[in-house]
Write a structure and sequence with these properties.
Length: 393
């Protein structure tokens, strides 16, 4: 079995053969993948060694100390956090060999074509159609709130392949080429002034059956792997103490004593404790993940993340008074990633409003926690056994 000492040896061999100071960044990342040190818990030949997930920290620490480049994970969060584990679980051998390496190295950025204008919270009600034609599928429809679509080379896509069965049963999961001429990506400008999200129109997009992930009609089950990983990726990211949104407001409190009041002090203390509890809970969740696939517990972490971000950013604006009402830049731009701490308090306040929508609305996540974590009775659902084509829209 691969242990920490073995990983340290393999990492030393990688650094000796490819010194970071003199090796091209992409060449180093490819060599790291081939050495099984990309994600050590993945199988051999797919960037891993079949080791315990917890041992990844051993490799990361050695490489960081040596000044080695990383794969800029924030730039391809959807690929790394959502597409990769889904491809690993449901993909064919050919799909794993084709997609996982350029995904991990960042050569190919991924986006997610799930939500639609008429199927946001009710994702299973989606209407984008995929019709079988020869050895492939022809897809038509519209997706919305697609992060990074303007940078993406590939997308994970769910589409309706059978309208004659109940909505959860007629969905199939695909890997979509974003360079297809039938894919039209249009920016959605947000309240922050940026357009990190997009709407995507699919017109006669042809997807080969070889890019179908999982069985026909089994897309909802495949999508659950994606969604569970998404909620963990959003709500359970690794942070140091005072990392994330609580950091800037704590810094302002220490450096600007003239802004302090007793009431603000009490609110800051409460939120600081809650942020630290959430951080430690996220660490515990990641340790549980080392033993298997993520479950519905990630929904609880994502709920806490959204609520805390909104409350903390509101407190920061109030603490800063008139300064908190200023905004640094309304320029329309299409960023590669969201930078919560690199902008001002006004940006954090506005951007955090989306946290309770993206990655599953808080209302839907509350249902997931109630039913799948706490075991409470399900809410009545009258559309569960009705064919999708017969549903009121």
């Amino acid at each position: 079995m691969t242990d920490a000492a073995e990983l340290q040896r393999r990492t030393a061999d990688l650094l000796a053969a490819h010194p970071p100071a003199t090796t091209d960044r992409l060449d180093f990342l490819k060599a790291r993948f081939d050495a099984g040190l990309a994600w050590v818990h993945y199988p051999e030949g797919l960037g891993g060694l079949g080791a315990a997930r917890s041992l990844q920290a051993v490799v990361d620490a050695e490489l960081e100390a040596a000044g080695a480049p990383d794969n800029d994970p924030r730039r391809n969060g959807i690929g790394l956090g959502m597409a990769a584990p889904t491809i690993l679980k449901y993909g064919t051998d050919e799909q794993k060999q084709r997609f996982l390496k350029p995904l991990w190295t960042g050569e190919e950025v991924w986006c997610q074509l799930f939500s639609e204008p008429g199927a946001g919270s009710d994702l299973a009600g989606l209407g984008t159609r995929a019709v079988r034609e020869g050895d492939g599928w022809v897809v038509n429809g519209q997706k919305v709130w697609t992060s990074s679509a303007h940078n993406a080379r590939w997308a994970i896509l769910i589409a309706r392949t059978d309208p004659d069965v109940p909505k959860h049963a007629g969905i199939t999961y695909f890997l979509c080429d974003m360079t297809d001429p039938g894919v039209d990506v249009r920016p959605l400008r947000q309240i922050t002034g940026e357009a990190e999200f997009n709407e995507v129109f699919l017109t006669d997009v042809r997807i080969p059956d070889a890019h179908r992930l999982g069985e026909i009609g089994d897309g909802w089950r495949v999508a659950q792997t994606t969604l569970n990983n998404e909620r963990v990726a959003i709500g359970g990211m690794r942070l140091p103490r005072e990392g994330g949104m609580i950091g800037p407001v704590s810094k302002t409190w220490r450096e600007r004593p003239e802004l302090r009041t007793h009431n603000l002090h009490q609110r800051l203390l409460k939120l600081w404790v809650e942020a630290e509890v959430a951080r430690l809970t996220g660490e515990r969740l990641r340790q549980q993940l080392a033993l298997g696939q993520p479950g519905p517990e990630g929904a609880g972490m994502k709920l806490a993340f959204a609520r805390l971000n909104q409350e903390i950013s509101g407190l920061e604006v109030e603490l800063r008074g008139e300064e908190g009402l200023l905004y640094d830049d309304w320029t329309m731009r299409r960023p590669e990633l969201v930078d919560f701490v690199g902008r001002d308090a006004g940006y954090r306040y506005l951007r955090s409003k989306g946290n309770s929508i993206e990655g599953g609305t808080s209302e839907v996540l509350l249902n997931i926690v109630a039913e799948r974590v706490l075991g409470l009775p399900s809410e009545p659902r009258t559309d569960k056994d009705v064919a999708w084509k017969d549903l009121a829209r």
